[in-house]
Amino acid sequence: MSDFHSYAHAQYAYFQKHSRRTVYKKGQLLVRREEQSPWMFFIESGYVKMMFTNETGEERVLGFGLPGMAIAQSGSFYTLPHFELEYAAHTDCIVWRIPRDDFIAAMRADSILFGEWHERILQNHNMLVERVLYLGERNPKARVLAWLLGMARYYSVVQRDGSILVEIPMTQDIIASFTGLSRESTNRVFAELRAANLVRIQRHHLIIPRLDSLHT
Predict the structure, then answer these.
(1) Under 8 Å CB-to-CB from 88, ≥6 apart: which residues?
(2) Starting at the edge strand that comes first in sequence, how are the strands of the sheet with 70-72 ordered?
(3) Sign of CA dihedral 72, 77, 79, 105
(4) Which end of the chain has fewer CB atoms at under 10 Å, N or C?
(5) Which CATH code for domain 139-215?
(6) What is the mean pLDDT of residues 50-67?
(7) Chain-centre distance of CA 79, in angstroms?
(8) What is the rounded CA–CA span in Å between residue 59 and residue 90?
C-alpha cells in the first residue's frame, strides 16, 4: 500500500467486530449513483473504483479505494447538494459493511476512529486538488506526466530496484478516463514515454523506472 494512504487499523478492528464481511466480484457495484446507500464499507482486499459519468455519457474515474480504507457514498455526512459517484469493484474485493449511522455513532464515541476518518478526508482533499491541477494541463503529454506523478504519490509502492510500481491494475480505457483524454491521445503519449523508458507496462501495471525522470 502507498505510504501516503495510512492503514486504518482501528477502523478495521471495529468493522471486524461489528459488521458483516462481503465479497464483491470484479465489476459489481457497491454503490449506485441513482440510489441512496445506507452503508459504510471497509476494504480488506482488492480495489474499488470511484467514478462518475459526464454530460456526454463518458465514464470518468475520480479515484480508487485501497485495502485499509473506509469508504461511503459521496455526500453521506452532510445534507447540502453534492455530486453523486458510483463505486464498483475494480478487482474482486473483500469488504466489511455496516450501516453508516452505526459507524457515525461509533466515531462520535471514539476519538481514534474519528481521527483515522479525518486523516482520510485530508488525503482525499490533497488528491482532488492535484487532480484539478493536472486536468488543467492542455498538453496531453504534460497532463499524463503530471498524472503519473500523482499515481506514484498516492497509489504506488517502491520496488527493490528503486522503481515505482502503481498497484492499481490499469487499462488504456482507465488511463484515458482518469486523465480526461481520448484513448487515442493516451496511446500516443504512452508510446512516446515507453520509447524513452519513462514508464513500462507489465501485466496491466505501470512501472516508473526513475521517478525524477518524469520531471524532465
Answers:
(1) 27, 28, 29, 30, 48, 49, 51
(2) 20-24, 93-99, 39-45, 70-72
(3) positive
(4) C
(5) 1.10.10.10
(6) 85
(7) 24
(8) 14
pLDDT in tens, 180-192: 899 999 999 999 9
Gap between the Cα atoms of 81 and 118, Å rounded: 21
CB environment 121-153: b (16+ within 10 A), e (fewer): eebeeebeebbeebeebeebeebbbbbbbbbbb
CA–CA separation, 86 and 194 (whole Å): 32
Strand 156-158 to 164-166 pairing = antiparallel
The class of domain 9-132 in CATH terms is mainly beta
Q: Which residue has the cell 527493490?
A: 160
Sorted by where each begins, the domain ranges of the chain are: 9-132, 139-215
